[in-house]
Write a structure and sequence with these properties.
Organism: Cryobacterium algoricola
Helix content: 25-40%
Order of helices and strands: HEEHEHEHH
Mean pLDDT: 89
Number of domains: 1
Distance between the termini: 26 Å
Protein name: GIY-YIG nuclease family protein
Length: 177
């Protein structure tokens, strides 16, 4: 896959909505995967303190050294996430992206993954794109996207600090542990 916006659009990703506009966007309720992308290729400026909400009394702030170590100049994709249907089938992209946005706005919301994006100055300008996964398991699609990203760039996306949940069960590239 081509990790540019055009390549992602060709792969079926839609949206490309700024975080600042996400609350007013029409988001699909279906399960899927989503990406957070830079809108430009400027060098990052990291905030000393994350504005994201504390969850279970954990502070989302990490050191600027950790952020700089995770940063990939060559990549516009900063985070790859998933949104399953949930046990009652009522979750999906709309609910998960709303939680992510609210976490970044400082609310106590359970979306710890991807928290590095909130320490970027101008995080409201970052773009969010999504892809409904249909019958495919969003965990598997997320893991495959992270695998492909690692093959392309040699590291996980900036805000993905873990392999996808499906790979934590099987290991990188789908190999069983």
């Amino acid at each position: 896959m081509d990790w540019t916006r055009l390549g992602l659009e060709n792969a079926g990703f839609t949206g490309f909505v700024r975080f600042a506009d996400l609350a007013a966007a029409t988001l699909p309720a279906a399960p899927g995967v989503y990406l957070v992308l830079r809108a430009d290729d400027r060098s990052p400026y990291f905030l000393e303190t994350s504005p994201a909400g504390r969850f279970k009394e954990r502070n989302p702030t990490v050191s600027n050294a950790l952020l700089a170590e995770a940063w990939l100049d060559a990549a516009s994709v900063l985070y790859i996430g998933k949104a399953g249907a949930g046990a009652k089938g009522k979750r999906g992209l709309r609910k998960r992206l709303t939680e992510y946005r609210r976490h970044g706005a400082g609310e106590k919301v359970g979306h710890w993954g991807g928290r590095y994006v909130w320490q970027l100055a101008g995080s409201a300008e970052l773009l969010v794109a999504w892809l409904e996964t249909g019958v495919e398991d969003p965990e598997e699609v997320e893991a495959a996207l992270i695998d492909h990203f690692v093959l392309t760039f040699g590291a996980r996306p900036f805000a993905n600090r873990k392999l996808g949940a499906a790979r934590r069960k099987t290991g990188p590239m789908g190999r069983h542990r």
